[in-house]
Amino acid sequence: MDMAFLGELLTNVADRGRALIGMERFLGKGARPIDRLCEDLLSGKGEASGMALAQAVLEAWQRLDKPGRLAFFTVLMERFGPDAERLDAAVERYRETGDAAAVAALHLASEPRRQELFRRLNLAPEGTHVLVQMREALFEAMEAEPALKAVDADFRHLFGSWFNRGFLVLRRIDWRTPANVLEKIIRYEAVHEIQGWDDLRRRLEPPDRRCFAFFHPQLVDEPLIFVEVALTTAIPRSIGELLEPEREALPAQQATTAVFYSISNCQEGLRGISFGNFLIKQVAEDLKRELPGLDTFVTLSPLPGFARWLAAVAADPGALNLSNEERAELARPAGETISLEEAARAARDKLLGQMAAQYLLRARSASGRVVDPVARFHLGNGARLERINVGGNLSARGLRESHGVMVNYRYDLGDIETNHEAFATRNTVVASSQVRKLLRPVAN
Amino acid sequence: MDMAFLGELLTNVADRGRALIGMERFLGKGARPIDRLCEDLLSGKGEASGMALAQAVLEAWQRLDKPGRLAFFTVLMERFGPDAERLDAAVERYRETGDAAAVAALHLASEPRRQELFRRLNLAPEGTHVLVQMREALFEAMEAEPALKAVDADFRHLFGSWFNRGFLVLRRIDWRTPANVLEKIIRYEAVHEIQGWDDLRRRLEPPDRRCFAFFHPQLVDEPLIFVEVALTTAIPRSIGELLEPEREALPAQQATTAVFYSISNCQEGLRGISFGNFLIKQVAEDLKRELPGLDTFVTLSPLPGFARWLAAVAADPGALNLSNEERAELARPAGETISLEEAARAARDKLLGQMAAQYLLRARSASGRVVDPVARFHLGNGARLERINVGGNLSARGLRESHGVMVNYRYDLGDIETNHEAFATRNTVVASSQVRKLLRPVAN
Amino acid sequence: MDMAFLGELLTNVADRGRALIGMERFLGKGARPIDRLCEDLLSGKGEASGMALAQAVLEAWQRLDKPGRLAFFTVLMERFGPDAERLDAAVERYRETGDAAAVAALHLASEPRRQELFRRLNLAPEGTHVLVQMREALFEAMEAEPALKAVDADFRHLFGSWFNRGFLVLRRIDWRTPANVLEKIIRYEAVHEIQGWDDLRRRLEPPDRRCFAFFHPQLVDEPLIFVEVALTTAIPRSIGELLEPEREALPAQQATTAVFYSISNCQEGLRGISFGNFLIKQVAEDLKRELPGLDTFVTLSPLPGFARWLAAVAADPGALNLSNEERAELARPAGETISLEEAARAARDKLLGQMAAQYLLRARSASGRVVDPVARFHLGNGARLERINVGGNLSARGLRESHGVMVNYRYDLGDIETNHEAFATRNTVVASSQVRKLLRPVAN
Amino acid sequence: MDMAFLGELLTNVADRGRALIGMERFLGKGARPIDRLCEDLLSGKGEASGMALAQAVLEAWQRLDKPGRLAFFTVLMERFGPDAERLDAAVERYRETGDAAAVAALHLASEPRRQELFRRLNLAPEGTHVLVQMREALFEAMEAEPALKAVDADFRHLFGSWFNRGFLVLRRIDWRTPANVLEKIIRYEAVHEIQGWDDLRRRLEPPDRRCFAFFHPQLVDEPLIFVEVALTTAIPRSIGELLEPEREALPAQQATTAVFYSISNCQEGLRGISFGNFLIKQVAEDLKRELPGLDTFVTLSPLPGFARWLAAVAADPGALNLSNEERAELARPAGETISLEEAARAARDKLLGQMAAQYLLRARSASGRVVDPVARFHLGNGARLERINVGGNLSARGLRESHGVMVNYRYDLGDIETNHEAFATRNTVVASSQVRKLLRPVAN
Question: Which of B65, C3, C70, C104 is the most buried (most CB within 10 A)?
């Protein structure tokens, strides 16, 4: 393996934060406005002094306030699109000849100039990092000015190419990981909040816990997405049993089941660039290699849209053949039901399970999509719906969003492609028989 | 510094050469032809099983023979261009509205499908590497089928984005560098051939020698471009004094001058993606930081087109006010002149110097460009023409290509931008007075 | 630099925690008692199967309870000393011949067998680590059985050789350091307690803070000793100004003074093996190299024995020409004086300063040594006593131990040797004139 | 794994070659002779300025010529032994009391002062390296002055402790290893000479070749010992089949047999410090882990003493019941026999095989040891004698030293301890039945 050489190789990256010699020549002149700097960077000057100019632009940008950034993005939209004359000529030529050369010319002529601008801004030290921040700021600006989504299309195109899975690096996160990375894991965990360093350690250090993240070589301290994994001997029914602080750890060699219980994206500026798909499959493969005893790969996932959907059902007298009593029961706030007696609870739980199955298997949005976003993610990756766990998450948030219900999606490496196709082409939710059985018979 | 974390981070890259679990599902089916695999990869299947499909395509491609590759590229050209219907619709819409959204849609619709194909092929382990090889093979195919340059345009676009300077890593090459990298330095040195490991060591190990290369994190064992540097106390006049095996090494701290005496590109598949520009400036900055005593940064460069140009001049009776004797002298093969007597040699040398100045300062191609490619490179980078060294390279090749003349181009970090602009915008060759004085007075 | 190769080289160390093939051959037999295993390890068996036997001993040792460990150490003392017969013969021969060979033989014969035992135990994975723990346990056992110090002499001899400065590695500790190392910094800080991760970050991350530790290649996760440094523009008078959470950080380039404000040993099992001496000098050199603007290297140190000494002085009517009022003042608990009015406080502060100077410059123990252990450490390293800071540490501990007084010791790299000699050979405390002036005139 | 942190940790080692600030204070004074510097280093001065003093001594030593070094070693012998008075007192006290404290004091008093001197010399940058060179020079001096072996005893004692297996690192050597390490592999290969870089590559790069070396963290560029391994499907009979340049490589996964065909020590200065024992076993374990298909671990070894022994046998009329014809045959120079006809060759080969069995199983030196040093090494490690291969090495050296015979020793991890004990305690050579059968019946 050549990792040692690579290690040294990469030390230079870290170094690039240094002052560029001659930098002051650009900034010192003062007052060259940022749009002028951008034009320079795209001109021949950019060829001679690209790094320094790019750094000047990015530093100027970082000093802009919110209105300044909105103005900057507007300039990008209005003045850094394609060259109109050239584009018209290319369109004309395409209509005349329609040949391959004309197509190629048309593609080039229709490329907004800001794409090349972004590529040149990447010359600056930390350029990639600042460009990702820039897109994050763009999202904010887009709320005020939706037309800016034309600018975002270029960011998205570029980041899709730069953050191609082929350039990402999967890395285990553990208690030996640098603290500056770990604090980002604490900060970005979006599913089951991490309560400080002791809680973090409980998720990383025990032998039956794993955490993996994707990194990009240019963003060394910044995980892009990470997944937390518990190794168990059975598919878990609740998040509580996984996160219990006093539980006894399992020797990894004895585990049969890997549970992906939390997946979090870290970079708002990379929204829409999909990594999670690759992450789960890669981690599953790596774990299988390390621990051949593993034969089951599942998630323990929330149903973030369930409570909302259920409220609509409960409010609709004709829905799903529900009796009035059932609708009343479903309309009760989740918190209120904690103190139910056993029989009542069992009845309620049964009903919730039926509704969850209905929600996941049958519910469709106006555009015909499966309603639940987490379900769409895992089913789209080729997982199947394995089990519904009523009472899986009794935290305030779990009750509020999903009446405490959680779901296991199962990744069976041999079925992923078939499952994916069923879902992608026929909109079919592949589910285990135990889930399908929960469906109430449809009225006549 | 975070290099340690990075080091570990990158170990996973090296690992990616492993067999992908489930790979055989694709290859085992046998006989799915490569174009079918490519279509699958672009389809929803590619989303579910991208890595395995990409690997299947690349392995199938590597097994193709030369006609097979030509056929493959032809398929890429003919069937993986843009979707014609969609493109026509986008053109239509653009002509109707002309708004930003229409422009964006036009750009997307005109993007050949092979661009996304290439991005997905990059999912495979070693994908980047094989794609670079693929472009190399494409060059060969283009000789038979020039229309394939439409395919090359897409490679070039993608590689320009992926091999952006912001993603490259500068690394010193020395005698502690892994042997598998060093052997590539031996193989790729294009200017002054390296005669095996002992010669290599003479260029790397002495305290007054340096070598630097750019690497891409995905191509760890493959330098992209490298430069060899000699540290001296004066601007050198000949390559012989630099490469003399028995010379005494200079303590680096005593050096005042860094001489870039050889720059070599390593990856034919990255032809046209420019790195040299950045390399020289970055190395100059790094050396200045390490050795503050350095105040002069120059090249010692060949004039690869000089002999050819001179032959044309010598054959043209009216050219440059040359006398018949002079033209006869210039028509003599370089090798023949070795044994000239001193006075004759001095006269010849003077004449050669004048001609070289003429060649570099005044000669222009039909399209108006400076004739010499090496001159264009350095002048375009913002260097100035510092000195002409007659007798600088008396090797067979040096005599044959340039009558033994070599040139120093000087990189003065403070003047780079000005020099570049003079050259880029006014086609002016910035030269020292000593070079300009060599010019023969123009006839009347 | 060869660090990359080294990095890979060392990966194997980390690996050595793996199960040894064939291990069970030894442990499986069960019940071979630990002393028998030790004898085997020293015998020819140890040559054939040293690693496995060493691991068996160390694992058995780790399972021992406290009485078991006492028994084990007693066995080491009684049965693993030198071979008595061989020693007597060597003594006899020495008395007869007295030649170099006899001396060498005597040295060998007098070496306790446990020294070789310890060396062979080091063959086990993690051997060094467990041996350090073993010595820590020995300290506890020595409280019950002082004669065990004969065993400690062998540990100390061996560790002195193994943890020779030449084998240690100085490493900066910062916010990018692995969490498992950082938590040890929190745990081991012995001077100014670190209040959790946020406090730690305040000591590591700001640009005017540094922390360095010595490591041994065999104890990668275990700092041996570390020093915390503040970069300032003046010699500080109080720990409060350094640790103030809200203070504004200084750009490192502007610093003139490096303050070593805390030095902590981490490994109880390495007690008496001195590293602090080298650490301070090495860090001073490294900082000077990184930040040439630094010209002052000082500590901000406690006087841990001051309050005790002062209590004795205050209780002794004839001591130091003190008036009764002064003695009464000095007898007051430090905490009580917080609310003094300004004039009274000034008088008290002046008196405390005089007493501190007396304590450091003149006070000697029964054996004639300087009383304060921290003073002995820094003066023995060649520092000089620079300034006494009354009110330098108003924490409960600071008041209790030293009435709030702190001291700056100054490391002037040019005077270290002279200062050291004055202290080591003449017991002279080198001090600045401002400190010497604080001394009260001696009675008559 | 914590290797990343370690990697960074170790970068500081590489750095230690830097100039020590203040160094010139010692060397500048000029003319302080080396023995005086040594005394200073052992004195209190050494505590204050140990690193600088140690460096001064080592630099002075490196400038000494051969007579100077002899003089230096003589001083070490005569003036840096134990303190005579203190030793006599310790002997006296031991004879009086004989208690543990007296023993400990005796051991300390009998330790030559040069041991502490060596430990302090190790404070210098590169100290360990120079000390190893120093011992190498000592061997040369010992030829002139055998009494210096008293000095060597101290080197050996110290190196035995410092180069303890627990501190060594096993590392694979391959074609990605830094060139400066590889050139040492070429230089130090002692068994089957490596003919330059191409030959080296043939031994490192094919998938069925491995090379491993031990390193010490302080000697990063210096392998201590290395072993070359061939992966095969059968126990090889000749070195020729292994080193054949045109042979086809075997996929490593198909190998059943690992052949250790060359073991070379690299550091003459570490002579007598044994690593080979650990190296073979460790490599065997690591290979078994990587390639579970391996079930046979053997050497292909020379018999360096065979020809000499055989000559003596051939010259002794009564030896081994040999007929005169046989003795005549054995007396023939090995080279002469190349052209024998088949039957004669077969007869000769049979005789050589019998003699080799006799040599290995029965021949004993005057002191009763097995004669062949390579046999002693492997048998002492617990290997068994597996097969005798007549014609295994037909190189000039192989014919000259051992009439072309080679031997396989087999390492069966389950039998190592038993084999070792048989050899170590009963002097029994454990051999396969096929070897034992070669023995000629002893004349009653």
Answer: C3
Domain D302-436 in CATH 3.40.50.300: no
- CATH architecture, range A166-299: 3-Layer(aba) Sandwich (3.40)
Phi, psi of B401 (to 5 degrees): -80, -35
Candidates A168, A382, A157; CA nearest to B46 is A382
Q: Please say whether the beta carbons of A196 and A220 come within 8 A.
A: no
The CATH T-level fold of domain B3-162 is Butyryl-CoA Dehydrogenase, subunit A; domain 3 (1.20.140)
Task: Please state at what angle helix B324-331 crosses helix B342-361, rounded to 10 degrees.
Answer: 90
Question: Is A433 known to be catalytic?
Answer: no
Distances (CA, A) of C146 to A72, C113, C143, C149, D103: 78, 20, 6, 6, 16
Q: B 6-35 residues with CB below 8 A of C?
A: 7
Domains of chain D: which residue ranges?
A: 3-162, 166-299, 302-436
ipTM of predicted complex: 0.84
State the DSSP code for B252: G
Distance CA B77, CA B149 (A): 9
Q: Is there a contact between B74 and B45 (Cβ–Cβ < 8 Å)? A: no
Q: Do D7 and A5 touch (CB under 8 A)?
A: no
Mutate: best of B12, B175, B198, B199, partner D, most D CBs <10 A:
B175
Ramachandran sector of residue B306 (left: φ over 0; alpha: ψ -120 to 50; beta: rest):
alpha
Separation of alpha carbons B405 and B238, rounded Å: 9
Strand-strand pairing, D169-172 and C406-410:
unpaired
Tokens at residue C230, please? 């503040």
Q: How many CA atoms lie within 13 A of B75 on its CB side?
A: 15
C-alpha pair distances (Å), C293 with each of C253, C257, C296, C300, C425: 7, 9, 9, 20, 34
Residues from chain C contacting residue D171 (CB–CB below 8 Å): 8-9, 12
Domains B3-162 and B166-299 share a fold: no
Structural element, H or E, at residue B94 = helix B84-97
**The pTM is what?**
0.88
Backbone angles phi and psi of D387, in degrees to 5: -155, 145
Q: Which of C10, C95, C417 comes nearest D6 by C-beta?
A: C10
CB atoms closer than 10 angstroms to residue A266: 21
Both structure tokens of C393: 């540490």
Q: Which residue has the tokens 């059975």?
A: A234
Is D403 labeled as catalytic in the residue annotation? Answer: no
The DSSP string of A196-250 is HHHHHHHHHSSTTEEEEEEE-TT-TT--SEEEEEEEESS--S-HHHHH-TTPPPP
Element housing D279 (H / E): helix D276-290
Residue to substitute from A26, A37, A47, interface B, most B β-carbons within 10 A: A47
Locate the chain A residue with the closest alpha carbon to C176: A178
Residues from chain D contacting residue A292 (CB–CB below 8 Å): none
Q: Per-residue pLDDT for chain D (444 aa), expressed as one digit of tens each?
A: 333 444 444 433 333 333 333 333 444 444 578 989 999 888 866 666 778 889 999 999 999 999 999 999 999 999 999 999 999 999 999 999 888 888 888 999 999 999 999 999 998 888 999 999 999 999 999 999 999 998 999 999 999 999 988 899 999 999 999 999 999 999 998 888 898 999 999 999 999 999 999 999 989 889 999 999 999 999 999 999 999 989 999 999 999 999 999 999 999 999 988 888 889 989 999 999 999 999 999 999 999 999 999 999 888 887 788 888 888 888 887 766 667 788 888 888 999 999 999 999 999 988 889 999 999 999 988 899 999 999 999 888 899 999 999 999 999 988 888 888 888 888 899 999 999 999 987 654
